[in-house]
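A brief tutorial aside. Many learners find it easier to grasp structure tokens once they have seen a single protein encoded end to end. The record that follows does exactly this for Amino acid efflux transporter. Read the sequence first, then the structure, and try to relate runs of similar tokens to stretches of the chain.
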Amino acid sequence: MTGQIGGRLGAAQGTALLVGAVLGPGMLVLPHLAAAAAGPASVLAWVALLLLSVPVALTFAALGARYPDGGGVASFAALAFGRRASAVVGWWFYGVIPVGALAGALVGGEYVAAALGLDSRTGTWAVAAALLLLAFAANAAGLRTSGRLQLGMVLALVAVLAGAVLTAAPHAEAANFTPFAPYGLPGVADAAGVLLFAFVGWEAASHLSAEFADGRGLTRATVATLGLITVLYLGVALTTIGVLGPRAAESPVPLAALLEIGIGSAARPVVGGVAVLLTFGAINTYVAGASRLGAALARDGALPAWFARGGGPGRTPYRSLGLLAAATAVTTGLALVWTVDLDTLMRATSACLAAVTAAGVAAAVRVLPRGRLRVMAVVATGLALAALACCGAYLLVPAVLALAALVATRVSARRPVARVTIP
């Protein structure tokens, strides 16, 4: 998303890019999913994950400042734990993209179906399929979302979140917070498991690190981003519960419901349009990055070498892109047949991305110098592992991907690896 800026990013530009990495279209539905899991006590899950974000975000900023590299967490894992660990981290990200892309597409589908009054399930899946096809076609044609357009989409999301809070908050009622914890602490932990979807992305600081003029700019951007998302997330969480009450757990389009209360029925088509832009932009960007990651994994022996061929500077790695498209089609088909819902898809994605985050901060414990930074990395690792535990049975997804990565790496070690330069 950054483009080639050549180490000239300042704190203001960096903040905008980091906000874009952390915020995403998942915020359009996560208040509903969290409320369904924990009721009003879902607010506690939001607060806990915001507290987790502080040491995690600052640890990634410290890593990026000391070891600026576009390889991100996979590079740190290789530095701290070796080639196999790097392959596992790469597989966690690459392997969950088909699931995460489908989840993102369904977010847009739900808002469009609500805006147009379509049948909920049929309309949602039809729009989701169209968004996925469009994103893969755009990548095949070499049309990726520009940094400026992506930034505009992020600003649109910030505007929707802020608008929902400001216009609906006056309608909040204290009675909507009772009973506060109908499902007890297990419900709060359950809510945290799905909310992790909104808190992964701090590792993007490591990918952007080489673009900053200095490490202080990266740290300032991280602190500013923490402040902004704290205000937005808590505002959305409290307003959703306070205004919608029991409806928060029932409405699949909570922000549209809030805006409709605040400004009227015109809100739904507007939010539906914004949702389409946001979800397409996010899917397009992730598919572009993941297709190149797949080629790099093949280059380094973590995928069959065949998938590394055809990639290079300025060229689309069609074989890796095709593998992603096939995996996404299979995932979509299975989700339709087995009636897998959005909550399940988001939890599976959260488990993998949370595992990436945990690997990154654990690597920091090994590579950061002794003293305050290493202590912070230890705290971040403990909190990240605790958050990872909230994923429960969904940890099976990163476990299976890790096993596949180790098998692929072991097999590739027995044969020559094609060396291909990946942009």
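Self-check: The longest helix spans residues 83-116. If you spotted this yourself, you are ready for the next section.
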